[in-house]
Amino acid sequence: MKWKEQLLSLEPYKPGRPIESVKKEFGLDQVVKLASNENPFGTSQKVVAALQSVLSSFAIYPDGYAANLRSAVSEFLKVDEEQLIFGNGADNLIQIISRAFLSPGKNTVMANPSFSQYKHNAIIDGAEIREIPLIDGEHDLDAMLQAIDENTAVIWVCSPNNPTGIHISREKMTSFLKKVPEETLVVIDDAYHDYVVADDFYDAVEFVNQYKNLIVLRTFSKIYGIASLRVGYGVAHQDIIRVLEPAREPFNVNTLGQIAAVAALSDQDYVNECRRKNREGMKQFEEFCEEHQLHYFPSQANFILIDFGTNGDEVFQYLLQKGYIVRSGNALGYASSVRVTVGSNEENSGVIEAMKQYL
Ligand code: PMP
């Protein structure tokens, strides 16, 4: 048997504990999952209605070109249809980019801690990984630029960053983009873009026509509320899309996902409402942290990383038996913290109450 040796160094991906298994373990009737940054308000009713109309047969393959979704996203973002690539979640796009651009002999630059899948895929594809520590939860873009050499194929920028929630300002982002050599692909992972309410709010897609070495990743898993249907997309110059397309599997976005994403995009009232409620929820957590003098990063996303100054695993376990699944900071590079997804008002009050009891 021949396989890539580096696969043995990787743990299988273990996402947050499933609600049912936590219920069973602790004999709880109700368990709230605030671990994976999903939309606590669920799915838009427009999406539910659109799906109900197609729930009669699953015999036909999905549209491999995602024509309707492509047309809807192209219109929404005011980009050409050929500037788009769709994925089975943004995870799939990270995998496609890695597969197309990374190999032994190449290197890739990323922040640390940041979203785990950049490194995971780079290891599988055999590239050298150059991780640049965050400063105060924020990308050190200057140090990341310095780490680039003639073999740097991809540089990953996550804004807002998972797990800190810190958003890169327009000024920093534009000055960074100007300095990246043309031969290096810049990936801006914009998974949490729709939650951003920063004063200098900007849409990274506007840079795509200016920089031919840039791809912006987005997802329907967060504010659009269809994480289980797995839809994400990338926006770039068509020369980049041309290189990525052959590395994509033919039917990577399923039919229900395509239909749901079109409906989700059409319901911007729902998106705006979720953004507003997320901000309110974030305030509940910020107030709790300030009241108890716990360090947190000011997050522009739908999660918050709270430092309890103890062991993140211990806080995680405590909250678990109280019926709240959060994410221990231990696996995220912040050993004394937990990352909590902002939930509904009631869910937030509940988990905050449990955290108070822990203190
Ligand atoms: N990028 C970031 C920064 C994320 O946090 C996530 C979700 N955890 C993804 C990408 C992947 O999202 P998707 O559900 O679209 O695969």
From TrEMBL:
Its cofactor is pyridoxal 5'-phosphate. Gene3D superfamilies: Aspartate Aminotransferase, domain 1, Type I PLP-dependent aspartate aminotransferase-like (Major domain). Its EC number is 2.6.1.9. Residues 30-353 form the Aminotransferase class I/classII large domain. It holds the Pfam family Aminotran_1_2. One of its GO terms (biological process) is L-histidine biosynthetic process. NCBIfam families: hisC (TIGR01141). This is Histidinol-phosphate aminotransferase. It comes from Niallia endozanthoxylica. The gene is hisC.
